[in-house]
UniProtKB/TrEMBL annotation:
Bilayer-spanning residue ranges: none
Family matches, as InterPro entries: ATP-dep_Glu-Cys_Ligase-2, CP_ATPgrasp_2, UCP005522
Lineage: superkingdom: Bacteria
Protein name: Circularly permuted type 2 ATP-grasp protein
Pfam families xrefs: CP_ATPgrasp_2 (PF14403)
Domain Circularly permuted ATP-grasp type: 73-447
SUPFAM superfamilies linked: Glutathione synthetase ATP-binding domain-like
């Protein structure tokens, strides 16, 4: 673990970076017993509040705590300003791309993105063709995964535009650090994140259907057995709006209504945490019991807003990811502020040949994969795993992309053996409505296993509080 950028130290464990000096001084004053006690306190509080996630198919039980680390990830104001500008630029271009492919398709006509990459994509929804959505916004909430590699350069690893999760952990991690270590917040000027639910609600209200001045907004969940149910309930409670399931809603006279104890109430904006396929059994999967029959027809008529829009998944597919820098140039006439990770698209003959020849060095991902599943990390794989993946690539090359194995930046982390560097990423949450906005920071995820690059909670990752320093 030597060739990576260390967030706290500029030369091994010798020189502390300026923005970490106060924290490192405080950390050196803490006894191992104090830290162990604070960690236990955090676990107890998280369990009491119910901050858990479900692990499907796990023998360890259905509910787990996401491990929380008490060494915060700190980002200086100037670095955040660059990140924020790049994120705003990227999400603007992605929204313009989604609008374009469901309308004029100029980017396809210009030969920038191949037609088959869009229209044969499993996430493309022909039902959305020609539909006008409020403010032309499709990805109202985007979770953009950022990694740091090399000498400290930021890269976008992937764009999550369907139903990105994790923001509740960002908020609860901050509350936990303020509760456990209030003295740290006296030493540092840390940009707040607690207003995110207010920003989210304002954002959702701003994209209500035309003519609606006082919109009713709801959070739509698949139900309590969903892995992110805690977050659905948490966000509804924080925004002061109703948490509903499909069975709580119905369509009548080309409008969506919610059943209440006072009778039906019109619903204008649905922040849905349900995949496209399950939203409307009349339009998509007829066996879905999670959706609302007739919802698509109301949506097509512009009488309800869905956040995120149906069909946004076509833009966060890993096979579309390599084209995002070209989208920025095409739609905005700007150079990308944030770079992509170099990517080989295995449906291309020369990219497949390179990938097959360098499998032990590369990370290979399924284009529709998520959560750290369906991927090969070459340097950590056995010969048998590499050969098995080789056969999968040969059988279905268009189902995979490959990327170099990045030495993700690391942040000191409390593990069983004490303090040690562990690899991290960052998921800022970008809101698009009348404007594009975000709270400073995001969810920092950490790979708790030594040497591991997989930060996903379903694969044993944990989280940290993310501090963006104010100027």
């Amino acid at each position: 673990m030597s060739n990576f950028f260390d967030e706290m130290y500029s030369d091994g464990a010798t020189f502390v970076r300026e923005h970490y000096r106060e924290f490192e001084a405080w950390l050196s004053e803490q006894s191992p017993e104090t830290i162990a006690r604070k960690r236990m306190e955090a676990d107890l509080i998280f369990r009491r509040v119910g901050i858990t996630f479900a692990v499907y198919g796990s023998d360890a039980g259905t509910e787990r705590l996401i491990p929380f680390d008490i060494i915060s990830r700190i980002i200086p104001a100037a670095e955040w300003a660059q990140l924020e500008a790049g994120l705003v630029q990227r999400v603007k271009a992605l929204n313009m791309f989604i609008h374009d492919i469901y309308h004029e398709q100029n980017i396809v006509k210009a030969g920038v993105v191949p037609a088959e990459q869009i229209f044969k994509n499993a996430q493309y929804r022909p039902e959305m063709q020609g539909i006008t959505v409020a403010s032309d916004i499709y990805a109202h909430i985007a979770g953009i995964d950022i990694v740091r590699a090399g000498q400290g350069e930021f890269y976008v690893l992937e764009d999550n535009l369907r139903v990105p999760s994790g923001v509740s952990y960002m908020l609860e991690n901050r509350k936990m650090m303020m509760r456990l270590f209030p003295e740290l917040f006296a030493r540092y000027k840390i940009a707040p994140v607690a207003h995110y639910p207010d920003m989210l609600l304002d954002n959702l209200r701003s994209v209500a259907p035309m003519g609606v001045t006082d919109p009713t907004v709801v959070v739509m969940t698949p139900g309590m057995y969903n892995s992110a149910y805690f977050e659905h309930a948490f966000l509804a409670q924080q925004m002061g709006i109703e948490l509903v399931e499909g069975k709580d809603l119905f369509v009548n006279d080309n409008a969506v209504y919610m059943r209440t104890t006072r009778g039906p109430k019109r619903v204008d904006v649905i922040y849905r945490r349900i995949d496209d396929d399950f939203l409307d059994p009349l339009a998509f999967r007829p066996d879905s019991s999670l959706g609302v029959p007739g919802l698509l027809s109301v949506y097509r008529a512009g009488r309800v807003t869905l956040a995120n829009a149906i069909g946004t998944g076509v833009a966060d597919d890993k096979s579309i990811y390599p084209y995002v820098p070209d989208m920025i140039r095409f739609y905005l006439s700007e150079q990308p502020i944030l770079n992509n990770v170099p990517t080989w698209v295995c449906r291309r003959k020369e990219d497949l040949e390179y990938t097959l020849a360098h499998l032990p060095e590369l990370v290979v991902k399924e284009v529709h994969g998520a959560g750290g599943y369906g991927m090969l990390i070459g340097p950590a794989a056995t010969k048998d795993e590499i050969e098995s993946f080789r056969q999968r690539l040969l059988a279905k090359p268009d189902g995979y992309i490959a990327q170099p194995t990045l030495a993700l930046s690391a942040c000191p982390t409390y593990v069983e053996a004490g303090i040690a560097p562990r690899h991290i990423d960052l998921r800022p949450f970008v809101l698009s409505g009348k404007t594009v906005s975000m709270v400073p920071g995001g969810l920092t995820r950490v790979a708790l296993t030594e040497g591991s690059l997989v930060v996903n909670s379903s694969q044993g990752g944990g989280t940290k509080d993310t501090w963006v320093l104010e100027k």
